[in-house]
Design a protein that fits this description.
Radius of gyration of chain A: 15 Å
Structural class of chain A: alpha+beta
Largest sheet of chain A: 7 strands, antiparallel
Shape of chain A: globular
Distance between the termini of chain A: 32 Å
Helix content of chain A: 10-25%
Largest interface: A-B, 32 and 32 residues
Strand content of chain A: 35-45%
Number of helices of chain A: 3
Strand order of the largest sheet of chain A: 2-1-5-6-7-4-3
Oligomer: homodimer
CATH architecture of chain A: Roll
CATH class of chain A: Mainly Beta
Number of strands of chain A: 7
């Protein structure tokens, strides 16, 4: 489901935009770090945030990313949160801080915020390879 | 509703991620260009695309953006598509090509694709000013 292009987009430090469903049915979207574990997509957030409340209510999500080197290469994934876990979530957010901020520890740990990992199974993927390369600022 | 920070994010050539609601209630999100007309947010797409079908069914949307100069400055907007129009939509996509690609004409015009503008009223805005500036690659 997640071919080499998608894996590359996720492994590079591109931001993901995670869409979830509000209780009243309206969509909600927010930027987030993203990771991969085997063929599951991992998102790490804090308990109680809107995205957490939303997936507790409806586990269906959509994720979109553009390539920071060419924003005209994009992916939209539709999938389902199949697991929520606190296990390893503090270490996992440190690993994401390494990836995205190049520092060993997540700078915003707080005893008031319990980290939680969403494990997401991709069910539908739409990918566009790079376009418009000739117009991009170098 | 849209203060100077949000206006600046939209006027700069940042990508927007537009979340809409699929017919079955699941969320969908995709990257798009974005524009402002007075206090309405404008998105330009082609008729028949998923986002068009979705807003015809449910006009509630959410939009998120990060600042290309500091992706830790972000906004999430929740709002409603209050108007759909083809009027001026071809010229409008050319204007967006100027903004984003720095070329006078949108390179993907097609007689098979009728352009349409979504006019979106923002109803709720969550903005985070730049963070983690000290960790960013220069």
């Amino acid at each position: 489901m997640l071919d080499e292009h998608i894996v590359q987009l996720i492994k590079d430090k591109n931001f993901a935009f995670l869409a979830t469903r509000m209780k009243d049915g309206a969509p909600h979207v927010a930027p987030t770090w993203i990771d991969l574990e085997n063929d599951l997509i991992l998102i790490n957030t804090a308990e109680g945030r809107i995205k957490h409340k939303n997936v507790l209510n409806d586990p269906r999500v959509s994720i979109s990313m553009v390539d920071r080197n060419n924003p005209y290469s994009m992916v939209t994934i539709q999938g389902t949160v199949i697991e929520l876990t606190n296990e390893g979530a503090d270490i996992h957010i440190d690993n994401l801080a390494k990836k995205y901020l190049n520092i060993p520890k997540y700078p915003s740990h707080s005893p008031l915020r319990k980290r939680i990992i969403f494990k997401i199974k991709a069910e539908k993927v739409f990918f566009l390879p790079p376009r418009y390369t000739e117009y991009l600022d170098k």
